Automatic annotation (TrEMBL):
Source organism: Pseudomonas fluvialis
Pfam families in the cross-refs: GerE (PF00196), TPR_MalT (PF17874), WHD_MalT (PF25873)
Protein name: LuxR family transcriptional regulator
InterPro entries for this protein: P-loop_NTPase, Sig_transdc_resp-reg_C-effctor, TPR-like_helical_dom_sf, TPR_MalT, Tscrpt_reg_LuxR_C, WH-like_DNA-bd_sf, WHD_MalT
Domain HTH luxR-type intervals: 839-904
PROSITE patterns hit by this protein: HTH_LUXR_1, HTH_LUXR_2
SUPFAM superfamilies in the record: C-terminal effector domain of the bipartite response regulators (SSF46894), P-loop containing nucleoside triphosphate hydrolases (SSF52540), TPR-like (SSF48452)
Signal peptide feature range: none
Protein keywords: DNA-binding, Transcription, Transcription regulation
Length: 906
């Protein structure tokens, strides 16, 4: 897939998608009609409906050019291709995004990744989009949204969508629609509610004075009798009048023109148009007929269709005649015909019996050569050659697809191809099988991959081996997504063993999958070996995206080992490889590197920079529909929980879960990750029963002989479940069970090389032992933890350090001096007046832990919050509170705080 061509495609499309054509030279202004339209801006809908040639579009242009302040407009010129509701709504959303930066990002991803075999709730999608628009700051100017030539796209589904839009139109947004027929909407209801201003044929007809002004302006030196007959017969039809005047300028036979005024309006129109066409040279007539089928064209495309080099001067000549072309960009490169004119041209082409297949295929080749694959595929399908469309897709680089893992465009093209064609060649099966698997559409991917069996046995041994290897690699990837560890390992291992080094992208994904399974199994040494093989393969390939993916996998293993600084260096190495990638395109691996950089920075205690990385990573992952953004949402939720902002924490998880639902991601990918973070939040809130119930369910699922495989983005999830079970036991007052679980977890994690998880468990064991008065044991555990933290993982220590500053101050001061110890001491608050633990006014001094509890009582914390902050059981908090009251000689908390202040203890 050529990046340069893809980029030019985006630029060309953007240049013409929302371009409002200028008013044609010699346009007759309609100020009274514009005033009526402007008066209707207080409603919801401005509707201009009339037959062809009555100046609907020109009036809409004039209305936009004369909008009163602070209004501005967005112009969408529609075509037959917009009859697909998905395409129309995508164009609508892209236009709105030009008005509001960052608006509708998730909605755009959903729309681009919809699948034909899955029903799509357009109205629900539109409702969520309008809610998001309504929630935006409304400081900017109100917007007039123009849908020009709606009749070209009109259909049952699109009518329903637009009716829904009208019913729920946000404040500051008004719709202007031009159409040859009245749309099938509830117009009477809108009119009764004074939300509709409608202009029809009788409103748009030129008055006698206007017709005379137009005739004089166009310089027609006609006899008075003929001019009078013309004005009477045209009945205010502006296109007919213009065409007749144009024909009259070039005609030497006024009598023939006069006869053309007889008959009904349809005959007059056909006569006038044909008269204009017949007056053109043979070259121009041939040009018109051979390009009439195009929805848009430029000189280069017309040259390719006609096998000529004179299209540019012909286009300039047509422009000079004022009634043929509509410009589509400011550069004057792209045009379309006036629909009135193109309709007649196409009818003449059909009557002549000239086949269009060859023209469509020529256009297909030209669009393909320009990298405009959407239009190339459309032309192939219109030619009745879906196999040509399929061949265009087949020419895409499978390696680039696997490297970028941005499958949106490929799945959009899939909707334009017959389902039977997707399984017509092994190449298409493999390409779309991977696209579906990367999009987590596992059932569809597996069903498609099974179709490879139809092509076995292959014509020769090499082809047979290649097909088998491709099926094994894809099947292994799908099995990993399903959590089927045994099949995933077997398929990926066999794919690697079967040779076929030309399928390097698939081999690298197999290595990545096996490394992830090794981490989940606790075999970090094997994972490191597989990472090394993957990096060597990627470097031989010379593909920076694959090489960055290998660095990302290496960083994940190093992080599990507690080597956070080294992991961050790997992330930076991967990001350096991608530094030259275009910012306007989106890459899954770039998103993953940003997300993991954020995670590693938070482990180092740098939350501010880490959260900025999460924001960038989540944004790009949403554009690619990459579920790695789960990591970002989960860590942001945990951060909000540490700040006691539980509403924000659960909101982060709800957004992650909403995305997974909307992307139709199987729960095996995300449900356990989100539920585990919820358990952490419930524990912090004191909702122990809720946390206990869900931790038990998670433990049942991910432990034992029939244990499910840990999800791809949380391969150590079973060990984290044990960590929270230990915390639950402590908060329930069962410190003995909590200690057993923590010691068992430390031993298991260390035996697997999972030092980071061991560090988290050690810090919690230290607090548990310290709270029980077992200072010697606690000090030994702290020493072990500090050794692991030398790798850069400070956050597990900082979390508890902030909750129990005085407990940690004494413990750290008792440790051997060193840079890490001094750094941690630097995080502790400086005590300007240290809390006295002895006082002549107290018969018995407060202990260090009692002082900690008293300080939190003074800050307004509840007993449950104190339990969470100090990592001691609720029962222990209550015991300390009773001792404090007894020593201070008071009965209530408020009295204790007041007495402590009197004694200088606070």
């Amino acid at each position: 897939m050529n990046d340069g061509l893809a980029g030019s495609s985006v630029m060309i499309e953007a240049a013409s998608s929302f371009y409002r054509p200028p008013l044609p030279p010699g346009y007759l202004s309609r100020p009274q009609l514009c005033q009526r339209l402007h008066a209707g801006l207080t409603g919801r809908l401005l509707l201009i409906s009339a037959p062809a040639g009555f100046g609907k579009s020109s009036l809409a242009i004039e209305c936009c050019e004369t909008l009163p302040a602070p209004w501005h407009s967005l112009w969408l010129g529609l075509s037959a291709r917009d009859a697909d509701p998905g395409r129309f709504l995508e164009r609508l959303l892209l236009g709105l995004r030009e008005q509001r930066a960052g608006f509708g990002e998730e909605a755009l991803v959903q729309l681009r990744l919809r699948q034909r075999h899955q029903p799509f709730a357009f109205e629900q999608w539109l409702g969520e989009l309008l809610d998001e628009w309504q929630a935006l700051p409304q400081a900017s100017a109100p917007l007039l949204l123009v849908l020009d030539d709606y009749h070209l796209a009109q259909g049952e589904v699109l009518d329903r969508c637009l009716q829904f839009l009208l019913n729920h139109l946000p404040q500051g947004l008004v719709l202007l629609v031009t159409s040859r027929q009245r749309p099938d909407w509830h117009l009477a209801r809108l009119r009764l509610a004074r939300q509709l201003l409608e202009l029809q044929e009788q409103d748009l007809r030129l008055s006698d004075a206007e017709m005379l002004e137009l005739a004089r302006a166009q310089g027609a030196g006609l006899p008075a009798e003929l001019l009078s007959a013309l004005l009477a017969r045209s009945e205010g039809w502006v296109a007919g009048l213009r065409l007749w005047l144009l024909a009259a300028q070039e005609s030497a036979e006024p009598a023939l023109l006069e006869r053309g005024l007889q008959g009904d309006q349809g005959l007059i129109r056909d006569y006038l148009l044909e008269e204009v066409i017949e007056r053109q040279s043979a070259e121009v007539q041939g040009f018109l007929l051979r390009t009439a089928f195009l929805e848009r064209f430029c000189a280069e495309l017309c040259d390719a269709l006609r096998d000529a080099h004179d299209s540019q001067p012909i286009i300039a000549q047509l422009q000079a005649n004022q009634v043929f072309l509509v410009p589509l960009d400011e550069q004057g490169r792209w045009f379309r015909y006036h629909h009135l004119f193109s309709d007649l041209l196409r009818n003449r082409l059909e009557q002549a019996g000239e086949p269009l297949v060859g023209l469509h295929l020529r256009a297909c080749r030209w669009f393909s050569g320009q990298g405009l694959l959407d239009e190339a595929i459309d032309q192939a399908l219109r030619a009745g050659h879906p196999e040509v469309a399929a061949s265009l897709v087949q020419n895409l680089s499978e390696e680039q697809l696997l490297a970028e893992q941005n499958v949106g465009q490929l799945l959009r093209w899939k909707m334009d191809l017959p389902d039977s064609l997707l399984a017509s060649t092994p190449r298409l099966i493999i390409l779309y099988g991977w696209a579906l698997a990367l999009a987590c559409q596992l059932d569809a991917a597996e069903e498609l991959s099974d179709c490879l069996a139809r092509f076995l046995p292959a014509r020769d041994g090499a082809s047979q081996q290649g097909l088998l290897q491709q099926w094994l690699a894809l099947s292994g990837f799908i099995a990993r997504g399903r959590g089927d560890t045994r099949r995933a390992e077997a398929y990926c291992s066999e794919a690697l063993a079967s040779g076929g080094h030309e399928q390097a992208g698939q081999r690298l994904l197999c290595l990545s999958t096996l490394a992830n399974l090794a981490v989940a199994r606790g075999d970090l040494w094997r994972a490191r070996g597989l990472n090394r093989d993957a990096l060597e393969l990627a470097q031989r390939m010379g593909n920076p995206l694959f090489e960055a993916l290998a660095y990302y996998d290496r960083a994940r293993v190093l992080q599990a080992r507690g080597e956070v600084r080294r992991a961050l260096a790997e992330i930076h190495a991967g990001q350096a490889l991608l530094a030259d990638l275009p910012a306007q395109r989106h890459y899954a691996i770039r998103a993953r590197l940003a997300l993991y950089q954020g995670y590693l920075l938070t482990l180092q205690g740098d939350w501010q920079t880490g959260e900025a990385c999460f924001a960038a990573g989540i944004h790009e992952a949403r554009q690619c529909r990459d579920i790695s953004l789960l990591l970002g949402y989960c860590v942001l939720a945990r951060s909000a929980g540490w700040r006691q902002d539980f509403n924000a924490a659960f909101a982060q998880l709800a957004e992650a879960e909403r995305l997974m639902h909307s992307w139709d991601v199987p729960p095996v990918y995300y449900l356990a990750m989100i539920t585990l973070v919820k358990c952490e939040l419930w524990l912090a809130q004191g909702q122990l029963e809720m946390a206990a119930a869900w931790l038990a369910r998670l433990a049942l699922t991910y432990s034992g002989e029939e244990a499910a495989a840990a999800p791809e983005f949380h391969p150590q999830l079973p060990l984290h479940i044990q960590l929270y079970q230990a915390r639950l036991a402590h908060l329930q007052g069962d410190d003995a069970q909590a200690e057993r679980r923590l010691r068992g977890l430390i031993g298991q994690a260390q035996s697997q090389g999972g030092q980071l998880l061991a560090l988290i468990a050690q810090t919690r064991l230290f607090s548990l032992l310290q709270g029980a008065g077992r200072s010697v044991e606690a000090q030994q555990v702290l020493g072990d933890a500090l050794q692991v933290a030398e790798g850069g993982a400070l956050m597990p220590l900082l979390e508890l350090l902030q909750r129990q500053p005085e407990t940690w101050r004494g413990a750290l001061q008792a440790c051997a001096p060193g840079p890490l110890r001094d750094q941690l001491l630097g995080y502790l608050p400086v005590l300007s007046s240290p809390l006295p633990v002895t006082s002549g006014n107290l018969a018995e001094p407060l202990s260090g832990r009692e002082s900690d509890v008293l300080r939190l009582i003074a800050q307004g914390y509840s007993n449950q919050q104190i339990s969470e902050r100090l990592f001691i059981s609720l029962h222990t908090v209550k015991t300390h509170a009773r001792h404090i009251n007894s020593k201070l000689g008071v009965e209530r908390r408020t009295q204790a705080v007041a007495r402590a202040k009197e004694l200088g203890l606070l």
